[in-house]
């Protein structure tokens, strides 16, 4: 049996004004796992992370981090957590090395220069160690946040929208770093609204929307669901209805009958597209344009919410 390192049970958050940001969330994360929490902006991702990290107090529920109660034994639980927030929260006039060393000492660790050097080298920050934060680029500042979070050698690392607004090179470096940390036994929990980020890094994926955890699944199973694609055929002549005999493709008409839409699973070996096009040709149903698109994360959320309404 996998060993759980984080257990969230019945956690909810309602603010004084009456707004409920989280509704009874249950979630267990296993040691050494990479877990991605997917959701649109305002879904409750940051609220959940803030509660686990002790920044926000839950209205109900319990949280265990590496066997420590995050509410009654806050310091012990927090020592095992590293957090990379979305917002930049550093002293702009301090140097990179001093910033990271201070974070390490803040958690009762000695100023272990060999470990800090390793972290800074992994994040391509070693050559910038004597630079002030204000002198760094946006991407480099994000790397400093990661170094700060890793400074005290946490067992669990939270990455809140780690690659939002960063360049492609940093995104690749982030993915490489995450896999390297997992090899060292660190448990990674990241929030994102990028499907490809979850696909690249995660073992399991959770989907949250409007403060509710809609599902938690193995990545492969969820990616199969996310394999939905749409083929839109712009017709030469509009149709009043989908012709009889085409039921097996489950087609629909869009744009007042001017577009024939076929939704298919791109992960399947046989998508059914060639046979559909042949059938349309035999029926003399002409089209002047063809376009395929991937279902957006928002579309998937609508589907999931609809199924649970």
From TrEMBL:
It comes from the Bacteria. InterPro entries: AAA+_ATPase, ABC_transporter-like_ATP-bd, ABC_transporter-like_CS, ABC_transporter_ATP-binding, P-loop_NTPase. PANTHER family: ABC TRANSPORTER ATP-BINDING PROTEIN. The keyword tRNA-binding does not apply. One of its GO terms (molecular function) is ATP binding. Residues 6-235 form the ABC transporter domain. This is Multidrug ABC transporter ATP-binding protein. Keywords: ATP-binding, Nucleotide-binding, Transport. It holds the Pfam family ABC_tran.
């Amino acid at each position: 049996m996998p060993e759980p390192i984080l257990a969230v049970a019945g956690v909810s958050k309602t603010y004084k004004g009456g707004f409920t940001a989280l509704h009874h969330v249950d979630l267990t994360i296993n040691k050494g796992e990479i877990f991605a929490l997917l959701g649109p902006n305002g879904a409750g991702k940051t609220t959940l992370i803030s509660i686990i990290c002790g920044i926000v107090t839950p209205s109900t529920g319990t949280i265990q981090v590496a066997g420590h109660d995050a509410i009654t034994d806050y310091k012990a639980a927090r020592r095992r957590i590293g957090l990379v927030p979305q917002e930049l929260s550093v002293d702009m006039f301090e140097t990179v090395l001093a910033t990271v060393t201070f974070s390490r000492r803040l958690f009762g660790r000695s100023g272990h220069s060999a470990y800090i050097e390793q972290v800074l080298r992994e994040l391509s920050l070693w050559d910038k160690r004597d630079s002030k934060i204000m002198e760094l680029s946006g991407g480099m500042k994000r790397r400093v946040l990661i170094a700060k979070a890793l400074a005290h050698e946490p067992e669990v690392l939270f990455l809140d929208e780690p690659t939002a607004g960063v360049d492609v090179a940093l995104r690749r470096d982030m993915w490489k770093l995450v896999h390297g940390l997992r090899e060292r036994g660190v448990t990674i929990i990241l929030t994102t609204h990028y499907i490809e980020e979850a696909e690249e890094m995660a073992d399991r994926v959770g989907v949250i929307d409007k403060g509710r955890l809609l599902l938690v699944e193995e990545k492969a199973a969820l990616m199969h669901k996310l394999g939905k694609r749409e083929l839109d055929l712009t017709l030469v002549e509009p149709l009043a209805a989908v012709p009889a005999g085409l039921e097996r493709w489950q087609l629909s008409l869009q744009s007042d009958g001017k577009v024939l839409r076929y939704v298919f699973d791109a992960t399947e070996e046989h998508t059914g597209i060639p046979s559909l096009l042949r059938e349309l040709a035999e029926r003399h149903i002409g089209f002047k344009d063809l376009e395929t698109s991937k279902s957006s994360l928002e579309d998937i959320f609508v589907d999931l919410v609809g199924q649970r309404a």
